Known about the structure:
With about 550 residues, the chain is an alpha/beta fold. The chain is about 25% helix and about 20% strand. It is built from 17 helices and 22 strands. The chain has an eight-stranded parallel beta sheet. Strands 1-4-5 form a three-stranded antiparallel beta sheet, with no helix packed on it. A three-stranded antiparallel beta sheet has the order 16-17-18, covered by helices on one side. The chain is globular. Calcium ion binds near residues 91, 92 and 114.
Amino acid sequence: IGYLNPQIEGEGVSLRQTIKVANPNYLFLDLHISEWAPAGKIVIHFSKDGERVLSRDYELKSRRPGSAERKGFDNADVLYLITPDRFINGDPSNDYVQGMLEKPNRSDIDGRHGGDIAGIEKSLDYIKNLGFTSIWLNPLLENDQPKYSYHGYATTDFYRVDARFGSNEAYVALAQKARDMGIGMIMDMIVNHCGHHHWWMDDLPTPDWINFDNTYVRTNHTKFATQDPHASEFDKKMFFDGWFDTNMPDMNQRQPLLANYLIQNSIWWVEYAELYGIRMDTYPYPDMHFMTEWTKRVMAEYPNFNIVGEEWNGDPAIVSYWQRGKVNSNGYTSYLPSLMDFPLQEQVRNALQSDEPNAVRKIYEMVARDFLYPDPMNLVVFPDNHDMDRFFTQVDFDYDLFKMGLVYHLTTRGIPQLYYGTEILMSNPHGTGHGVIRSDFPGGWEGETKNALTGEGLSEAEKTALEFVRSLLQWRKDKKVIHSGKLIHFLPENNCYVYFRYNDSDKVMVIINRAEEAQILDLSRYSEMIGGKTSGKDVLSGKKYTLEGTVEVAGKTA
Ligand code: CA
């Protein structure tokens, strides 16, 4: 194609530039589409030596009304994270797809198990009835890799949903059906790396498409490289350009054609699937100037949108660096609205696990660092995800601690996210790998006696947990005071953490008593928040309280 000369036919569309690269199998066309260009057909004609040899039709679609104003997920939402291959196998006929490299193998914990888009569609009632308002799916794009491809983070085609999950059309239909039910779709995107079986790896468009000349050099994972004023150029290069793994080539986003390809691809998916948000994988690892440009352009297209970045670091000084509005000492300006709150997740886990006398202070001290964030309300808070021990495992299979952790995440500031199955106490033995953490959801496969969707075969403990999560989520759904109310907290004493969410009309007092024994709290300490109120109601039990003198709180409860 690189030897051909293109010509555009289409009203309001013109060819601004034709870019030829060293590899003649590629041609990059830079189109100008005017504001007034009507929807309709565009034809690209290719000619050689003045003679037309090829024509291709493309459809220029009219934009959906209101698309640019689309709203992203916010504090009123609770996100349900799903690993599609491990959730529900709604269509066993697509488990094996002829010609694709990895075959299904449910007995292999790292293999493909067959979960798919059809399965997620079957679960929408369950998700809605629980009270979730959006779903974040681990990546669905094609991962035609020879092994360990079920997780979806080694893309082999950025424009195609993996046939073992369904199709582009099925994904769009799922997003639409979910949206009609009040559930927004958040797409997991990766622009740092691709799969080593991506179709372009056999014939790279340019020699600089992949970092380190397309040879594997492992990233040093030093997140400090970005912010550290003393970082060496060597360490920075190793961090940004190093690969995650041999099967995940690290893309060079300084290559402008690749950068534009990735940005346009993201915008195309937002528009095509009518997305409610993006979760961006490994946010600090790509070239940071590219990442800034990517975020800036997506947000310029959709100013009310939301994007949450993954910066897996326990230090809020590092995480907050990336949030929009942050004034950084090196002048770096970010456009990223939201980040995953890894620092808080870590401290909630530490506080609940700990035997220290006043361990809940760890949570208090982390929230107190919110001054580092321009917008702490827009952080995504979560007890677990696909990369760490399940929450029930984190609290050592202690149901009381489990409940306290969920109450915390669903009432503190931020946008909560739970991992599929956490609602039915799914757990993994301590120290197990990712494949076990991402175990199959009960009832997702034919012939199982246990089914979370119907409740059939669930243990009493699992049913109790499910109803607990449901009651909390349903309660949270309409509580503006939890969505957008302010947060005031008190220095923990005797391993008991008290905070309030409040707005002009409502007040919620949360007491997290991590101590084994009951506490008698002197309410006068909280008079600045309780004010003239004389009574309150326990959200979970319905029990009425008189807000005078003292209140007694049982041990290990919230
Ligand atoms: Ca399937």
